[in-house]
Design a protein that fits this description.
By secondary structure, this protein is of the alpha/beta class. It has three domains: 79 residues, Arc Repressor Mutant, subunit A, CATH 1.10.10.10; 94 residues, Periplasmic binding protein-like II (D-Maltodextrin-Binding Protein, domain 2, 3-Layer(aba) Sandwich), CATH 3.40.190; 102 residues, 3-Layer(aba) Sandwich (D-Maltodextrin-Binding Protein, domain 2), CATH 3.40.190. It is 42% helix and 26% strand. It contains ten helices and twelve strands. The strands form three sheets. Strands 3, 4, 5, 6, 7, 10, 11 and 12 form an eight-stranded mixed beta sheet that branches. Helix 1 crosses helix 2, helix 1 crosses helix 4 and helix 2 crosses helix 3. The longest helix has 24 residues.
Length: 289
């Protein structure tokens, strides 16, 4: 198990020295254990490149199995020592939810359950679903709909998507704006890997509208900054609206059919659910007081 952990950490960091520091062992000891592992397998797992390393073809294949073995081992240990107020949960969330929803939720949960360890993973929906399938993530907060085998979802809430405009834009004179008003404007959106963009495009398609996309970004903060600079308009989740509203942007509800997204918890129904897991699910499902 030590060999697997050392190998997995080297593969993750791409550097033997940093991996040894992370595993709290000396570099010679870690290197010796990985060499023993390679001899036992009869294949080189790492290619040494000066100050760094990279996986060989055999290493990439073995890494997948090592991750599964380590995940199953951790799952087994957690199941044996099952308790509702201690242990570790890996919680994932998409980038348009994580920075706005998690800080306050985790602060409240840490006060209620200080012995529990919640590790956070922020990634796009597709990558999170792969992590759920592989056991790298226990629980995820995503936007529906999602399609994945063995994934169970529990709806948390539905929130409105608001139009965001530069503060000097003529449409800000309206209390509400219509989709037809926005369609004539350049749109700034997230990269296609983000479900918020798919949500925006499907809403426009339902209304026979085709926005002119002039910029794509990986970060919602970049989208907001481009809007502030007058590069276009966008639709953003209500939770992402800054509390300080004098930020060079204006936010408006759309008239008529309002765009929205549904946020849900998701987990692999094939994985064992610890008491701590159930407690976290219950906690996140309850409205904040």
């Amino acid at each position: 198990m030590h060999q697997l952990r050392y190998f997995a950490k080297v593969a993750e960091l791409g550097n033997v020295t940093r991996a040894a520091e992370a595993c709290h062992v000396s570099q010679p000891s870690l290197s010796q254990q990985i060499t023993k592992l390679e001899h036992e397998l009869g294949q080189p797992l790492l290619e040494r490149l000066g100050r760094g390393v990279r996986l060989t073809d055999a290493g990439r294949l073995f890494k997948r199995y090592a991750d599964q073995i380590l995940s199953l081992t951790e799952d087994a240990c957690t199941r044996v020592a099952d308790t509702p107020d201690a242990g570790r949960i890996v919680l994932a969330a998409i980038p348009t939810i994580a920075p706005y929803f998690l800080p306050s939720a985790l602060t409240r949960f840490s006060k209620e359950c200080p012995k529990a360890q919640i590790d956070i993973v922020e990634d796009t929906t597709g990558n999170i679903l792969r992590l759920l399938a592989d056991g790298g993530v226990d629980l995820a907060i995503l936007a529906l709909p999602i399609q994945a085998e063995h994934v169970h979802t529990k709806t948390l809430f539905t929130e409105e998507l608001l139009a965001v405009l530069p503060s000097h834009h003529p449409l800000t004179k309206k209390a509400r704006v219509a989709l037809k008003d926005l369609i004539g404007e350049p749109f700034v959106v997230l990269n296609e890997a983000h479900c918020l963009t798919r949500n925006t495009m499907s809403f426009c398609e339902r209304h026979a509208a085709s926005p002119l996309i002039t910029a794509r970004s990986h970060q919602l903060l970049t989208v907001l900054e481009l809007v502030r600079l007058g590069q276009g308009v966008s639709l953003i989740p209500a939770m992402a609206v800054p509390k300080a509203r004098d930020d060079g942007r204006e936010y408006r509800s759309l008239s008529g059919d309002r765009p929205s997204r549904t946020v849900a918890l998701a987990w692999n129904r094939m994985r064992y659910q610890t008491q701590l897991f159930k407690r976290v699910v219950q906690f996140l499902s309850e409205p904040a007081h």
